[in-house]
Amino acid sequence: MEKYIKIIGDSYYGYFNYLVNEMFYPSWKNYFWWLLGLSVGVWLLEIFFPWRKKQAIFRKDFWLDGFYMFFNYFLFSLIAYNAISNVAVEAFNDFLGIFGIENLVAIHIESWPRWGQFLLLFLLADFIQWNVHRLLHRVPILWEFHKVHHSVEEMGFAAHLRFHWMETIIYKSAQYIPLAMIGFGLEDFFIVHIFTTAIGHLNHANLRITYGPLKYILNNPIMHLWHHVKVLPKDRKYGVNYGITLSLWDYLFRTDYIPHEGRDEPLGFNGMEKFPKTFWQQVTYPFVKRGEDTSIRPDRVSLTKPVIKTKS
Ligand SMILES: [Zn+2]
Ligand SMILES: [Zn+2]
Question: How many whole angstroms from 203 Cα to the centroid of ligand 1?
Fold first, then answer.
Protein backbone atom coordinates (compact mmCIF):
# COMPACT_ATOMS: atom_id res chain seq x y z
CA MET A 1 0.00 0.00 0.00
CA GLU A 2 2.79 2.39 0.95
CA LYS A 3 4.33 1.77 -2.44
CA TYR A 4 1.13 2.90 -4.18
CA ILE A 5 0.84 6.04 -2.09
CA LYS A 6 4.41 6.90 -3.01
CA ILE A 7 3.60 6.33 -6.70
CA ILE A 8 0.60 8.69 -6.42
CA GLY A 9 2.75 11.37 -4.73
CA ASP A 10 5.57 11.02 -7.26
CA SER A 11 3.07 11.12 -10.13
CA TYR A 12 1.63 14.46 -9.04
CA TYR A 13 5.04 15.94 -8.32
CA GLY A 14 6.52 14.60 -11.56
CA TYR A 15 3.66 15.72 -13.78
CA PHE A 16 3.44 19.16 -12.20
CA ASN A 17 7.15 19.75 -12.83
CA TYR A 18 6.80 18.38 -16.34
CA LEU A 19 3.90 20.73 -17.14
CA VAL A 20 5.67 23.80 -15.73
CA ASN A 21 8.73 22.88 -17.77
CA GLU A 22 6.65 22.36 -20.92
CA MET A 23 5.01 25.75 -20.59
CA PHE A 24 8.01 27.88 -19.71
CA TYR A 25 10.80 26.25 -21.69
CA PRO A 26 9.75 25.89 -25.35
CA SER A 27 11.69 23.28 -27.32
CA TRP A 28 11.20 21.05 -30.36
CA LYS A 29 10.16 18.13 -28.19
CA ASN A 30 7.50 19.93 -26.28
CA TYR A 31 3.80 19.01 -26.44
CA PHE A 32 2.52 22.28 -25.01
CA TRP A 33 4.07 24.47 -27.70
CA TRP A 34 3.35 21.99 -30.49
CA LEU A 35 -0.33 21.92 -29.49
CA LEU A 36 -0.42 25.71 -29.38
CA GLY A 37 1.43 26.02 -32.70
CA LEU A 38 -0.77 23.45 -34.49
CA SER A 39 -3.91 25.09 -33.11
CA VAL A 40 -2.92 28.57 -34.27
CA GLY A 41 -1.76 27.14 -37.63
CA VAL A 42 -5.02 25.30 -38.36
CA TRP A 43 -7.06 28.24 -37.06
CA LEU A 44 -5.26 30.58 -39.48
CA LEU A 45 -6.09 28.18 -42.33
CA GLU A 46 -9.76 28.29 -41.21
CA ILE A 47 -9.67 32.10 -41.17
CA PHE A 48 -8.09 32.45 -44.62
CA PHE A 49 -9.68 29.46 -46.41
CA PRO A 50 -13.00 28.77 -44.65
CA TRP A 51 -15.29 26.05 -46.03
CA ARG A 52 -18.44 27.43 -44.36
CA LYS A 53 -17.87 31.10 -45.16
CA LYS A 54 -20.59 32.31 -42.79
CA GLN A 55 -19.14 30.54 -39.72
CA ALA A 56 -17.69 33.03 -37.22
CA ILE A 57 -13.95 33.02 -36.53
CA PHE A 58 -14.84 32.64 -32.86
CA ARG A 59 -17.47 30.00 -33.65
CA LYS A 60 -20.04 28.63 -31.19
CA ASP A 61 -18.25 27.02 -28.21
CA PHE A 62 -14.79 28.19 -29.40
CA TRP A 63 -13.62 28.95 -25.86
CA LEU A 64 -15.33 25.96 -24.29
CA ASP A 65 -13.55 23.66 -26.76
CA GLY A 66 -10.30 25.54 -26.20
CA PHE A 67 -10.62 24.72 -22.52
CA TYR A 68 -11.42 21.07 -23.29
CA MET A 69 -8.27 20.99 -25.41
CA PHE A 70 -6.03 22.14 -22.57
CA PHE A 71 -7.89 20.02 -20.03
CA ASN A 72 -7.76 16.77 -22.00
CA TYR A 73 -4.18 17.23 -23.20
CA PHE A 74 -2.64 18.32 -19.89
CA LEU A 75 -4.84 19.12 -16.89
CA PHE A 76 -6.56 15.75 -16.66
CA SER A 77 -3.15 14.07 -16.54
CA LEU A 78 -2.17 16.42 -13.74
CA ILE A 79 -5.38 16.08 -11.74
CA ALA A 80 -5.91 12.36 -12.04
CA TYR A 81 -4.85 10.37 -15.07
CA ASN A 82 -1.13 10.18 -14.40
CA ALA A 83 -1.56 8.98 -10.83
CA ILE A 84 -4.37 6.55 -11.72
CA SER A 85 -2.52 5.04 -14.67
CA ASN A 86 0.81 4.70 -12.81
CA VAL A 87 -0.97 2.90 -9.96
CA ALA A 88 -2.97 0.74 -12.40
CA VAL A 89 0.16 -0.30 -14.32
CA GLU A 90 1.99 -1.15 -11.08
CA ALA A 91 -1.00 -3.08 -9.74
CA PHE A 92 -1.36 -4.91 -13.06
CA ASN A 93 2.33 -5.87 -13.03
CA ASP A 94 2.01 -7.05 -9.42
CA PHE A 95 -1.00 -9.11 -10.44
CA LEU A 96 0.99 -10.70 -13.28
CA GLY A 97 3.82 -11.31 -10.82
CA ILE A 98 1.53 -13.63 -8.84
CA PHE A 99 1.64 -15.93 -11.85
CA GLY A 100 5.37 -15.48 -12.33
CA ILE A 101 4.96 -13.28 -15.42
CA GLU A 102 7.53 -10.49 -15.50
CA ASN A 103 6.45 -8.69 -18.60
CA LEU A 104 3.95 -8.97 -21.40
CA VAL A 105 6.25 -8.62 -24.36
CA ALA A 106 5.30 -11.35 -26.80
CA ILE A 107 6.69 -10.06 -30.08
CA HIS A 108 10.19 -8.65 -30.18
CA ILE A 109 10.57 -5.79 -32.59
CA GLU A 110 13.59 -3.99 -31.10
CA SER A 111 15.69 -5.23 -34.00
CA TRP A 112 13.28 -3.77 -36.58
CA PRO A 113 14.23 -0.51 -38.27
CA ARG A 114 12.91 2.50 -36.38
CA TRP A 115 10.37 3.42 -39.08
CA GLY A 116 8.96 -0.12 -38.98
CA GLN A 117 8.42 0.15 -35.23
CA PHE A 118 6.70 3.52 -35.70
CA LEU A 119 4.46 2.14 -38.43
CA LEU A 120 3.42 -0.94 -36.46
CA LEU A 121 2.68 1.06 -33.34
CA PHE A 122 0.71 3.63 -35.31
CA LEU A 123 -1.37 1.06 -37.25
CA LEU A 124 -2.10 -1.04 -34.19
CA ALA A 125 -3.00 1.95 -31.99
CA ASP A 126 -5.24 3.46 -34.69
CA PHE A 127 -7.05 0.18 -35.38
CA ILE A 128 -7.74 -0.27 -31.65
CA GLN A 129 -9.05 3.30 -31.52
CA TRP A 130 -11.34 2.68 -34.49
CA ASN A 131 -12.83 -0.32 -32.67
CA VAL A 132 -13.18 1.54 -29.38
CA HIS A 133 -14.86 4.43 -31.21
CA ARG A 134 -17.41 1.99 -32.69
CA LEU A 135 -18.12 0.72 -29.18
CA LEU A 136 -18.58 4.30 -27.91
CA HIS A 137 -21.44 4.54 -30.39
CA ARG A 138 -22.90 1.09 -29.81
CA VAL A 139 -22.84 0.58 -26.05
CA PRO A 140 -25.44 2.87 -24.41
CA ILE A 141 -23.35 3.64 -21.28
CA LEU A 142 -20.34 4.54 -23.43
CA TRP A 143 -22.48 6.65 -25.75
CA GLU A 144 -23.46 8.78 -22.74
CA PHE A 145 -19.79 9.77 -22.38
CA HIS A 146 -19.24 10.16 -26.11
CA LYS A 147 -22.18 12.56 -26.44
CA VAL A 148 -19.91 15.37 -25.22
CA HIS A 149 -17.89 15.08 -28.44
CA HIS A 150 -21.03 14.88 -30.55
CA SER A 151 -22.60 17.94 -28.96
CA VAL A 152 -20.49 20.13 -31.27
CA GLU A 153 -22.78 22.20 -33.48
CA GLU A 154 -20.19 24.17 -35.47
CA MET A 155 -16.99 22.38 -36.38
CA GLY A 156 -13.60 23.97 -35.84
CA PHE A 157 -10.11 22.65 -34.96
CA ALA A 158 -10.64 22.73 -31.17
CA ALA A 159 -13.68 20.44 -31.37
CA HIS A 160 -11.08 17.69 -31.87
CA LEU A 161 -10.28 17.62 -28.16
CA ARG A 162 -13.80 18.30 -26.87
CA PHE A 163 -14.50 14.95 -25.20
CA HIS A 164 -15.28 13.50 -21.80
CA TRP A 165 -12.16 12.60 -19.75
CA MET A 166 -13.55 9.09 -19.38
CA GLU A 167 -12.73 8.55 -23.07
CA THR A 168 -9.03 8.92 -22.25
CA ILE A 169 -9.33 6.13 -19.70
CA ILE A 170 -11.33 3.89 -22.06
CA TYR A 171 -9.02 4.37 -25.07
CA LYS A 172 -5.78 4.03 -23.11
CA SER A 173 -7.00 0.93 -21.23
CA ALA A 174 -7.96 -0.76 -24.48
CA GLN A 175 -4.56 0.03 -25.97
CA TYR A 176 -2.43 -0.90 -22.97
CA ILE A 177 -2.18 -4.69 -23.23
CA PRO A 178 -1.77 -4.99 -27.03
CA LEU A 179 0.92 -2.29 -27.03
CA ALA A 180 2.67 -3.79 -23.99
CA MET A 181 2.81 -7.07 -25.91
CA ILE A 182 4.98 -5.48 -28.56
CA GLY A 183 7.04 -3.76 -25.93
CA PHE A 184 6.07 -0.10 -25.79
CA GLY A 185 3.59 2.52 -24.69
CA LEU A 186 2.25 5.42 -26.73
CA GLU A 187 4.38 7.88 -24.78
CA ASP A 188 7.48 6.62 -26.57
CA PHE A 189 6.45 8.11 -29.87
CA PHE A 190 6.46 11.86 -29.92
CA ILE A 191 6.27 12.23 -33.70
CA VAL A 192 3.30 9.85 -34.01
CA HIS A 193 1.48 11.79 -31.30
CA ILE A 194 2.09 15.16 -32.97
CA PHE A 195 1.07 13.76 -36.36
CA THR A 196 -2.21 12.34 -35.02
CA THR A 197 -2.93 15.63 -33.23
CA ALA A 198 -2.45 17.54 -36.49
CA ILE A 199 -4.72 15.19 -38.47
CA GLY A 200 -7.35 15.31 -35.68
CA HIS A 201 -7.31 19.13 -35.67
CA LEU A 202 -7.72 19.16 -39.46
CA ASN A 203 -10.57 16.58 -39.33
CA HIS A 204 -12.62 19.00 -37.25
CA ALA A 205 -11.52 22.19 -39.01
CA ASN A 206 -13.71 24.42 -41.16
CA LEU A 207 -11.66 23.43 -44.22
CA ARG A 208 -12.54 21.69 -47.47
CA ILE A 209 -9.69 19.20 -47.72
CA THR A 210 -9.70 15.51 -48.72
CA TYR A 211 -6.00 14.88 -49.58
CA GLY A 212 -6.89 13.55 -53.08
CA PRO A 213 -6.40 9.79 -53.46
CA LEU A 214 -4.96 9.69 -49.92
CA LYS A 215 -8.54 10.09 -48.66
CA TYR A 216 -8.80 6.29 -48.68
CA ILE A 217 -6.03 6.19 -46.08
CA LEU A 218 -6.30 9.44 -44.14
CA ASN A 219 -9.38 10.71 -42.36
CA ASN A 220 -10.30 14.24 -43.50
CA PRO A 221 -12.67 17.14 -42.72
CA ILE A 222 -15.37 16.10 -45.23
CA MET A 223 -15.40 12.47 -44.10
CA HIS A 224 -15.39 13.36 -40.41
CA LEU A 225 -18.13 15.96 -40.82
CA TRP A 226 -20.39 13.06 -41.82
CA HIS A 227 -19.43 11.31 -38.59
CA HIS A 228 -20.94 14.29 -36.74
CA VAL A 229 -24.17 14.76 -38.74
CA LYS A 230 -27.41 14.72 -36.82
CA VAL A 231 -29.43 12.62 -39.25
CA LEU A 232 -27.95 9.23 -40.11
CA PRO A 233 -29.02 6.89 -42.92
CA LYS A 234 -31.54 4.36 -41.65
CA ASP A 235 -29.30 1.35 -42.27
CA ARG A 236 -26.41 2.90 -40.26
CA LYS A 237 -28.24 3.68 -37.07
CA TYR A 238 -25.17 3.67 -34.79
CA GLY A 239 -22.96 5.86 -36.93
CA VAL A 240 -20.60 6.12 -39.90
CA ASN A 241 -16.94 7.03 -40.54
CA TYR A 242 -15.47 5.95 -37.20
CA GLY A 243 -11.87 6.61 -38.29
CA ILE A 244 -9.64 8.57 -35.95
CA THR A 245 -6.47 9.26 -37.94
CA LEU A 246 -6.90 6.66 -40.68
CA SER A 247 -9.98 6.35 -42.89
CA LEU A 248 -8.64 3.01 -44.14
CA TRP A 249 -10.56 0.90 -41.60
CA ASP A 250 -13.90 2.46 -42.61
CA TYR A 251 -13.25 1.63 -46.26
CA LEU A 252 -12.06 -1.91 -45.41
CA PHE A 253 -15.00 -2.69 -43.12
CA ARG A 254 -17.61 -0.75 -45.12
CA THR A 255 -18.49 1.80 -42.48
CA ASP A 256 -17.62 4.69 -44.82
CA TYR A 257 -20.37 7.11 -45.81
CA ILE A 258 -19.98 10.32 -47.80
CA PRO A 259 -23.20 10.81 -49.81
CA HIS A 260 -22.16 14.35 -50.80
CA GLU A 261 -19.91 17.06 -49.40
CA GLY A 262 -22.37 17.95 -46.65
CA ARG A 263 -20.93 21.38 -45.89
CA ASP A 264 -24.06 22.67 -44.14
CA GLU A 265 -25.49 19.45 -42.67
CA PRO A 266 -26.86 19.98 -39.13
CA LEU A 267 -24.57 18.37 -36.53
CA GLY A 268 -25.24 16.68 -33.20
CA PHE A 269 -27.76 14.11 -31.99
CA ASN A 270 -31.48 13.98 -31.30
CA GLY A 271 -32.45 15.46 -27.98
CA MET A 272 -29.32 17.60 -27.72
CA GLU A 273 -31.43 20.66 -26.85
CA LYS A 274 -31.51 19.14 -23.37
CA PHE A 275 -27.79 18.42 -23.28
CA PRO A 276 -25.91 20.66 -20.77
CA LYS A 277 -23.90 23.59 -22.08
CA THR A 278 -21.08 24.10 -19.58
CA PHE A 279 -17.91 22.11 -18.99
CA TRP A 280 -18.70 21.01 -15.46
CA GLN A 281 -22.29 19.97 -16.29
CA GLN A 282 -21.11 18.09 -19.37
CA VAL A 283 -18.44 16.05 -17.57
CA THR A 284 -20.72 15.17 -14.65
CA TYR A 285 -23.77 14.53 -16.86
CA PRO A 286 -23.21 10.78 -17.51
CA PHE A 287 -22.97 10.16 -13.77
CA VAL A 288 -25.99 12.17 -12.65
CA LYS A 289 -28.14 11.41 -15.67
CA ARG A 290 -27.94 7.62 -15.47
CA GLY A 291 -31.25 5.85 -15.49
CA GLU A 292 -33.43 8.55 -16.98
CA ASP A 293 -32.06 8.63 -20.47
CA THR A 294 -34.04 9.10 -23.63
CA SER A 295 -31.72 9.95 -26.46
CA ILE A 296 -29.73 6.83 -27.32
CA ARG A 297 -28.43 6.36 -30.81
CA PRO A 298 -31.28 4.50 -32.56
CA ASP A 299 -33.49 7.60 -32.11
CA ARG A 300 -31.28 9.34 -34.61
CA VAL A 301 -32.35 7.11 -37.46
CA SER A 302 -33.93 8.99 -40.28
CA LEU A 303 -36.65 7.28 -42.22
CA THR A 304 -36.85 9.90 -44.90
CA LYS A 305 -33.27 10.83 -45.77
CA PRO A 306 -32.47 9.72 -49.32
CA VAL A 307 -29.08 8.19 -50.00
CA ILE A 308 -27.37 10.19 -52.71
CA LYS A 309 -24.45 8.78 -54.63
CA THR A 310 -20.90 9.73 -53.66
CA LYS A 311 -19.36 12.30 -55.89
CA SER A 312 -16.26 13.55 -54.09
ZN1 LIG B 1 -18.11 9.46 -32.52
ZN1 LIG C 1 -15.09 14.31 -34.12
Answer: 12
| Distance from the alpha carbon of residue 9 to the mean position of ligand 1, in angstroms | 35
Distance 221 CA to ligand 1 centre (A): 14
Instruction: Give the span between the Cα atoms of 83 and 11, in whole angstroms.
Output: 5
Displacement of CA 48 from its chain's centroid (Å)? 26
Measure the CA–CA gap between 155 and 228, rounded to whole angstroms.
9
Please list, residue by residue across 25-37, b when 16 or more beta carbons sit within 10 angstroms of its beta carbon and e when fewer do: eeeeebbbebbee
Q: How far is the CA of 87 from the centre of ligand 2 (A)?
A: 30
Rg from Cα positions in the chain: 20
CB 217 within 8 A of CB 205: no
Which of 15-29, 155-169, 256-270, 291-305 has the lowest average pLDDT? 291-305
pTM of the full predicted structure? 0.83
Alpha carbon of residue 228 to chain centroid? 13
Question: pLDDT digits over 44-89, tens only?
Answer: 999 999 999 999 999 999 999 999 999 998 877 777 667 677 777 7
Give the Cα separation of 231 and 224 in Å (integer): 14
Q: What is the rounded distance in angstroms from the CA atom of residue 49 to the CA atom of residue 198?
A: 17
